[in-house]
Amino acid sequence: xxxxxxxxxxxxxxxxxxxxxxxxxxxxxxxxxxxxxxxxxxxxxxxxxxxxxxxxxxxxxxxxxxxxxxxxxxxxxxxxxxxxxxxxxxxxxxxxxxxxxxxxxxxxxxxxxxxxxxxxxxxxxxxxxxxxxxxxxxxxxxxxxxxxxxxxxxxxxxxxxxxxxxxxxxxxxxxxxxxxxxxxxxxxxxxxxxxxxxxxxxxxxxxxxxxxxxxxxxxxxxxxxxxxxxxxxxxxxxxxxxxxxxxxxxxxxxxxxxxxxxxxxxxxxxxxxxxxxxxxxxxxxxxxxxxxxxxxxxxxxxxxxxxxxxxxxxxxxxxxxxxxxxxxxxxxxxxxxxxxxxxxxxxxxxxxxxxxxxxxxxxxxxxxxxxxxxxxxxxxxxxxxxxxxxxxxxxxxxxxxxx
Amino acid sequence: xxxxxxxxxxxxxxxxxxxxxxxxxxxxxxxxxxxxxxxxxxxxxxxxxxxxxxxxxxxxxxxxxxxxxxxxxxxxxxxxxxxxxxxxxxxxxxxxxxxxxxxxxxxxxxxxxxxxxxxxxxxxxxxxxxxxxxxxxxxxxxxxxxxxxxxxxxxxxxxxxxxxxxxxxxxxxxxxxxxxxxxxxxxxxxxxxxxxxxxxxxxxxxxxxxxxxxxxxxxxxxxxxxxxxxxxxxxxxxxxxxxxxxxxxxxxxxxxxxxxxxxxxxxxxxxxxxxxxxxxxxxxxxxxxxxxxxxxxxxxxxxxxxxxxxxxxxxxxxxxxxxxxxxxxxxxxxxxxxxxxxxxxxxxxxxxxxxxxxxxxxxxxxxxxxxxxxxxxxxxxxxxxxxxxxxxxxxxxxxxxxx
Lengths: 403, 403
Known about the structure:
The structure is a homodimer of 403-residue chains.
Chain A: E1 2-7, H1 11-22, H2 24-31, E2 35-41, E3 55-56, H3 59-63, E4 68-73, H4 80-90, E5 94-97, H5 100-116, E6 121-122, H6 134-140, E7 146-152, H7 155-167, H8 171-181, H9 189-192, H10 195-209, E8 219-220, H11 228-236, E9 239-251, E10 254-265, E11 277-284, E12 288-295, H12 299-315, E13 331-332, E14 339-340, E15 342-347, H13 351-358, E16 360-364, E17 372-377, E18 380-381, H14 382-392, E19 396-402
Parallel strand pairs in A: 1-2, 1-4, 2-3, 4-5, 5-6, 8-10, 10-13, 10-19
Antiparallel strand pairs in A: 7-9, 7-11, 9-10, 11-12, 14-18, 15-17, 15-19, 16-17
């Protein structure tokens, strides 16, 4: 029997307990022995809960109990979660987490600590919720040189963009609805400004390059400027609009990474990833393109991913199975030199001027719309585009990168 | 250093050698030591080939060389490949294969043999070519009870159906073109009649249930009856036509499996899997839906999957890491009792009669077509549908299951 402690009995933590219980025959078979949730750490009590007797309030009890081999950190944040994770790893207890913020911020240190104490720090649930992506990157694509990763990595923004597309609604009203339904937080900034997706692509980029990719150095643009009008033109052009988190290896130790809304062709597999679903599109030098699709968040999918890490720890007790990246920072290329083709929506009166300035390869008129027109540019440097767009001033109504 | 032997220097075999060579820094890093291709077994000689000096014609040399730890079986077929695989496993050499026919036919025996000799029989490349699916099912979805798997598992038929859809062409002409381009074999039966997809869904079903699912007992229907006219109606209905290999757990030891062309809604993620791409759609009881997408065939993608198995063997020498299923056969449910909704194309003159007989929930008329009409039925038992359709006789021009 292997004893497990769950830190934080919120959405994901209670899901972890539920998955271990409901699928115990499968989980125990795959683990090679019985998994038991011995402790649940939370500040609150849960009278009436079937696991109320496991709830404790003192982390020391867990860290000092030699019977506890595996800890699930489902608290979130980088405060107590960081302290508890360090303390557990220092005692040789493996830690499985869904906390992308902590992995993105302190990943290399925690991996090093786990290694020094002959245990594992696993984080399948930190990216893409229930989509198995960390383990395939680490264990399946072992004959590949991964060249690029592009993901739809945030369920809230993908839900909002999908609703805007389907209903022709504007950002603010869909956000409000999403908040009412619980799909978006009351303070939605981390999602809608792209920070959540940024942390996840930082983790994937670190795995891809083997070097630390600092999420704070990744160019990040959210979806707050995407309008219902942009979607009208996207539809007319056979495209959709998605918040993409992209990363590409440029050379030894150098990576190009960014998070931004892109106008994507409908025939691309990422274009059909709708609602709260997420997907990770991976390009390898032998395999070509592959894609991993599933629920990017949610109690049970995320918990299932945490428990898959617990199972992996259980069958490799005393063995190090983590994927690693070096503490050394990868160089993140400045995006100003990147060549990108653009969608630009302008006032009808400025179409000719914009066309000439931006070297448009195509213009688009939507029947019944007199106020605006769209054009598509050839690839040009980000800095060049920014300059030319600036010169056009308020005649530019909307811009989106093409993918 | 770990010595590897490659059996068969054809498309996949030469790809295996190429992947090990081209990505050797990555492959050796992930393996934990250097991999070396010591022998290449083939009947032919390859003068001028960079690996010509490794080519031998006598399998005994491989099986009797204690230095060879891992064998890649990339010959195909169930004759010599079967004998050589058994002989290698009996000597404790792990075998990695792309041979779905052999896995589907002798999987349990070979897995048992590998287990008895403390080595592994791995077959990631046997299903979905380069798509990592066996390892995710086995190592990632360990906290899941897998309830259903639906795959587009054959690249040739998916290429043909995609071309029929895009060009409005008929089956025969697209098949001919595919044969000229090398996307279809001169004898295309194994692909177009669904046998190849059937073997792959049998392997996935065996992994899902933990019991042996006999491919020969799976109801299998190919794509030869799908017409350009069917695609006209599919398009009008917002649907596509795909050859789906489906498997669903019905109860303890019982599975429902079938291979057939389905008319699938365009909004389903499988509908956008086009050309030679394949995908596997997996439903778990906690995770919900997830999908794995990539190149289902081709030299380098398939070779990359074989080498990923080699790497896994290399880092687990002397340890058993295989997924298993029992020798005991799973019960395969008779499809006659399954409830399915249908697309039916009938002569215009017979529409009313067909509507009444089949209880159509919707009819469809395509402008400019006078000769035929389509209807969509409510779900009904396969046996009931077959009986009613038989009664309508030659008035029925085409039928497809809905998905």
